[in-house]
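note to self: dont lose this again. the chain is below, predicted strucutre after it. 153 aa total, dont forget to put it in the shared folder this time
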Amino acid sequence: MSLPAHIAAQNRKARHEYTIVDTVEAGIMLVGTEVKSLRAGKGNINEAYAGPSGDELWLYNAYIPEYQSKMPFPHETRRPRKLLLHRRELRKLVGAIAKEGMTLVPLDIHFGPRGIAKVLLGLAKGRKAHDKRAAIKEREWGRDKARLMREKG
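---
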């Protein structure tokens, strides 16, 4: 029996701005005060992105505020954080970014069943404005269709 994942930060715009081709769950290296801050529900990954540096993958521009209690050594709020992946997954993602011009977008930061912080990364392609409008139209039609079916019985 697995416990439900506790979502600490979520990027809700990502699925609207990008077409998500594939998702990968990666570990993230955090310091203690960052974990406490995320457990309290603070944190923002709306402007964050992941990218390779050398033969490692890093999460850039993710905002995790300082923990509120008076800690002697607070962490930097927007520092790059190392992502932990298997070597094969890392090579696959870096290859897709280099060849196909895709982007790695963090979709959420959550705590798994063992209480370890994980990042759900989406391998994404950017959407044009007309694609976004078509997606909105399709989503609204789905809602209207469901509403009509409920009313009919």
